[in-house]
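Section 5.1 Outputs to date
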Amino acid sequence: MTAGHYTDLLWDAVLRGDEYSAVDVVVDALRDGLEPEAVLLEVIGAVQQRVGLEWAANRLSVAQEHAATAINERVISTLSLTSGRHGGERGRVTVACVDGEWHALPARLLAEVLRLRGFTVDYLGAQVPAAHLVTHLHRTGPDAVALSSSIATRLPTAHATITACQAAGVPVIVGGRAFGTDGRYARLLGADAWAPDARTAAETLADGLPDPAHPHAQPMDDLPHLSDQEYTLVTRSAPRLVATVLDRLPERVPAMAGYDDDQRRHTAEDVRHIVDFLSVALYTGDAELFEHFLGWTAEVLEARSVPVAVLRPVLDLLGDELRDFTRASELLRRATTFPALTGGAGTPVPAGAVTEGADSTTLHRTGRPA
């Protein structure tokens, strides 16, 4: 049987929320001769990727997505126990997620692949604070750190973590969607290596990472544009920006006058999310990061039958508040010219449209490309 056959079986089990059938699929795949690494990446990994795509298309709820991820986590545990112990002759690697990063499954898949390939692995899981990670490095002395992040808003934290690990003398390989499909943010933030997938990461680590090139670098050594302080000032003023936009938004979206407390709370979360992505675009100096987020969000809104034009008033109001910030103003100006966001004049905006789709809230739950 091919990996695709078992992928379909696991997808059916996950969709039904049937943990026992999901475990049976993995056990059967191993019994029928499929390599454990292929089960991890071509079956479990493929199903998890489909979960994200189906959620984005509004064919899975948030609850279904979380349930599917939990089942896949337990299936990985079964596979790990079934495939047995493997030696640590290839070195020791610490695998962790950036602080604030809850999407741990990609890191877990990498950890299991590394174990299968003969590494000793310390898997630390989701959202590991940099200080605790460095303490662990001093205690265990690994050959490398593998750092994972899926959400671009965690890039400033990732940068600080990369720098802290390198200062401890441990090289860092990074991966995950946060670092870009081409690894551009890995290079920008001074990581020692980047890998687009678990197999490439394992091969890179097997070859060995060089000692950190700049073990005492500071953020502005990598990102000199931070000297204008726009990232710092926008980040510090984020609560005020959100409050001001919320106060003025009913002028642009009259239906907000009828919002209840929950709708206003969700709208505040939505606006904060936009400010966070604007901030990280200022940090990286990359306008495409903000534009990609808005374009992806527009697709998700459209899948939920929410008029994309609801984004424009928020961007305009942020532009008013940040008119004295050169880079932020340019980012917002470019964003408002996006064809996907211009919409049509007079496009009706239903009550709650900024935060609600056909059957779920949207923007504050769309901030992580799946």
